[in-house]
Every structure is written in structure tokens, then in C-alpha cells.
Amino acid sequence: MKHFKTGFLFFLIFLVACSEQLDFNQAEGFNHSPVIQTSLAYFTLFPNDFMDSVTGAEILNGRSDISDFRILENSFLRDNLQKIVIDIEVKNEIMKNFTALVEFLDDNGTIIYTFSTSIISSQNLAFIHQEIIQISSNPTIVNATKVRILVALSSSSSNPLIENDPSEFEFKSSGTYFIETE
User: Less packed terminus of the chain by CB within 10 Å, N or C?
Assistant: First the structure.
């Protein structure tokens, strides 16, 4: 019985010593800022993708791809988005310089936002570009529903393309979306 009383006494001391008033007001100052990251576009091109299949001449106006960009259709994201960071990585094994242009479009194909043109030099295996879009400065970006990427041969390249060259032009991009909630 003596051990029971001693144990009970220690339990009461422990219970009282480890408790304090709960502050329910601290939840009011809580600010949650989630971050979402998604893939934006990925493709690989080869030298013959920039050559006319009949004449063998180089296609100077390049290759263009339009992809859906529907993440901003979410109303919560649209209303709370603070900034978008687009990261681009390119591995250019081809013996030619290229230019890359990225544009965000709305449903009608109207250009909403354009990145500065990137020049990717010949055999640059680690080209990196980061574009930061502040929503406060570019509020129309939330209307974007498509992304267009244009890759073209740079006029400064003098090396001719070789049709069966296994070299690659690999383009990868991702978007990181910063959300502010109250």
C-alpha cells in the first residue's frame, strides 16, 4: 500500500508539473505557405529534327511544341499564388548553337508571358535558366492554360548538321508554385 501511495504522489506531481495553460490564440498568427512543384515540359530532339526530310536543308525556324498548362485552373491556387519559379535545364550535345523561347498562352493562344530568349551554346551539357514570376507584377499569368516552347537553330552556328548524328538536345523544365494562406 505504501508503494501505491508513493506512486500516486509521484503521478500527481508529474501531472501538475507537466501542464500549463493552453494558448488558443497562437493559432491565429499561424501562416501556412505551401509549395507545389510540377513538371512543365520534357523533350529530346536530334539533329534530323532540324532537317527537311526531302531536301536535307536545315530548318531555321525551329521546332515548336504547345502543352497544356492547367494547374492554375484551381481557384484556391489562383487566389493565393504569390510567385512561380520556372527551372529549365538543357543538355545540348549537338555541334550547333540553339535559341529557346518559352511563352505562356491563354485559351485563345494570346501570349500572356514570355521568357527572355535563351541561347544554348554548342555542346553545353549543363545549361540552366531560372525564371521568377511575381504574381503581383504579372497578375495575368494566372490566366495561362498553355505553354509554348520554341527551339531553333541559332544563326551564329556555322557547323552543318549531320542527319544520322546520335547527339541529343534534351530540354527539361519544372514549375514551383508558392502559395500564401492566412
Answer: N
Using CB atoms within 10 Å of the CB of residue 56, give its burial: 0 to 12 exposed, 13 to 18 middle, 19+ buried: exposed
Which CATH number covers residue 74? Answer: 2.60.120.230
Q: Is the pLDDT of residue 127 over 70?
A: yes
Q: What is the pTM of this model?
A: 0.78
Q: Which element (helix H / strand E) includes 2?
A: helix 2-17
> How many domains are there within the chain?
1
Burial profile 10-24: b = 16 or more Cβ within 10 angstroms, e = fewer = eeeeeeeeeeeeeee
Question: What DSSP element (H or E) covers 86?
Answer: strand 81-92
What cell does 118 get? Answer: 535563351
Q: What distance in Å separates the CA atoms of residue 93 and residue 91, rounded to the nearest whole number?
A: 6
Cβ(112)–Cβ(106) under 8 Å? yes
Grid cell listed for 8:
500516486
132 located within any domain = yes
**More confident: 85 or 12:** 85
Which domain range does residue 172 map to?
31-179
